[in-house]
Design goal:
The complex is a heterodimer of chains A (111) and B (115). Chain A has a single domain (4-110), classed as Sandwich (Immunoglobulin-like), CATH 2.60.40.10. In chain A, 0% of the residues lie in helices and 58% in strands. Chain A has strands spanning 4-6, 10-13, 19-21, 23-25, 31-38, 42-51, 54-57, 64-70, 73-78, 87-94, 100-102, 106-110. In chain A, the strands form three sheets. In chain A, strands 2, 5, 6, 7, 10, 11 and 12 form a seven-stranded mixed sheet that branches. A three-stranded antiparallel sheet of chain A has the order 3-9-8, with no helix packed on it. Chain B has one domain (3-114): Immunoglobulin-like (Sandwich), CATH 2.60.40.10. In chain B, 0% of the residues lie in helices and 53% in strands. Chain B has no helices and twelve strands. The termini of chain B are far apart. The mean pLDDT of chain B is 93. Classes of the chains: A mainly beta (111), B mainly beta (115). The interface between A and B is medium-sized, with 26 and 25 residues.
């Protein structure tokens, strides 16, 4: 089975800090994604990547950036964390048309 | 742009009952995929069922089946003989067949199975 691993399950950061969320997949999937999940809003796409060093903005990229230096790793960066970025962050990977495999999520609290 | 709507924020049924979760979507695409994902309290999103739009036959996976109505742009999930372990958030999602493999999610339905 494909495994997608997110490095932290819970994180608490201070306003203004630079935050890195790491995601690693082990099945050589081309596509990787970062979503945030908020009650009543479902999952919203932040950024995605379809190849190494390639990235595209999703629906809510403001305040975030990403890095994909290796195929298996996709990092989400909060340049200067703010309280409105408190959320659940989900990473996923996929191969063509088969749907996603998700990580366990990182619940980030910005205080 | 595609949109996915789940009109039932919460549902609750008794164990062993059958329950149907609604999902509608809006797209101008002809070929696409539809999915139902389950997110239990453990937070791990799990793929429940997948439907390819060009296939007329409704997908089934054990106790889970869908009613796919392409013309009506409707994709409901039926859970038969519901079990306590079915308690979870359920998300309906849409993906275009071509291009970037982005999933568009609905808002989710919180399903509770009562003993």
């Amino acid at each position: 089975d494909v495994k997608v691993t997110q490095s932290s399950r819970y994180l608490v950061k201070r306003t203004g800090e630079k935050v890195f969320l790491e995601c690693v997949q082990d099945m050589d999937h081309e596509n990787m994604f970062w979503y945030r999940q908020d009650p009543g809003l479902g999952l919203r796409l932040i950024y995605f990547s379809y190849d190494v060093k390639m990235k595209e903005k999703g629906d809510i990229p403001e305040g975030y950036s990403v890095s994909r230096e290796k195929k298996e790793r996709f990092s989400l960066i909060l340049e200067s964390a703010s309280t409105n970025q408190t959320s659940m962050y989900l990473c996923a990977s996929s191969s063509q048309g088969l749907g996603y495999t998700f990580g366990s999520g990182t619940r980030l609290t910005v205080v | 742009a595609q949109t996915v709507t789940q009109s039932q924020p919460e549902m609750s049924v008794q164990e062993a009952e059958t329950v149907t979760l609604s999902c509608t979507y809006d797209t101008s695409e002809n070929n696409y995929y539809l999915f139902w994902y389950k997110q239990p309290p453990s937070r791990q999103m799990i793929l429940v069922i997948r439907q390819e739009a060009y296939k007329q036959q409704n997908a089934t996976e054990n106790r889970f089946s869908v009613n796919f109505q392409k013309a009506a742009k409707s994709f409901s999930l039926k859970i038969s003989d519901s079990q306590l372990g079915d308690t979870a958030m359920y998300f309906c999602a849409f993906m275009k067949h071509e291009g970037a493999q982005k999933l568009v999610f609905g808002q989710g339905t919180r399903l509770t199975i009562n003993p």
